[in-house]
């Protein structure tokens, strides 16, 4: 089993400690849902795990050996490009060859099939529904073939029906991955996931 360890992780903005000597061990494959008040540091924590920002002290261990995929709160897609073109842009930024090779074709076909949107591959993003766009955004994370998936409010803009569908898809397609989700929802977002609370700069197990 792979692990991702946070060791004495500390992050300050000005004089304010956002994360304070935070120790935690995430196991893969598992699902964790991080709750916490607005401004408690949830996005800051994901940014540190992804390596987008550096801690003031402490470290993230195991992250370097694991490929991280990050779905941002406002993940951007180019509306006047097709689903294939959007995913290719993402792929080209990871692939050393920057071309749509056979690996890309196999990867995109498998991924879009898993998200049940293969028939939309040549459609412009501007012609997709909100739920379909969200599926393309989720599919785009898999283009970097990550071991760890970080998601900031992945279902916040969806209605109940779409939300349930997306959660089901995440549970099946991402079942072998370590998933860390930030969510404002008070109920467990993903069944079987571990609920955590970020408070006063530390992570606590939350009782449901
Ligand atoms: N680059 C920055 N410079 C200064 N302060 C920052 C910076 N990034 C975040 N902060 C502050 O750090 C605190 C934690 O922000 P963060 O975005 O991690 O919170 P959050 O728990 O994700 O909030 P929300 O639930 O509202 O998205 C906030 O008070 C925020 O204003």
TrEMBL record:
It comes from the Bacteria. The keyword Kinase does not apply. Gene3D superfamilies: P-loop containing nucleotide triphosphate hydrolases (3.40.50.300). Signal peptide: none annotated. InterPro entries: AAA+_ATPase, ABC_transporter-like_ATP-bd, ABC_transporter-like_CS, Metal_Ion_Import_ABC, P-loop_NTPase. Residues 4-208 form the ABC transporter domain. GO terms for molecular function: ATP binding. Keywords: ATP-binding, Nucleotide-binding, Transport. Belongs to the ABC transporter superfamily. This is ATP-binding cassette domain-containing protein. It comes from Paenibacillus aurantiacus.
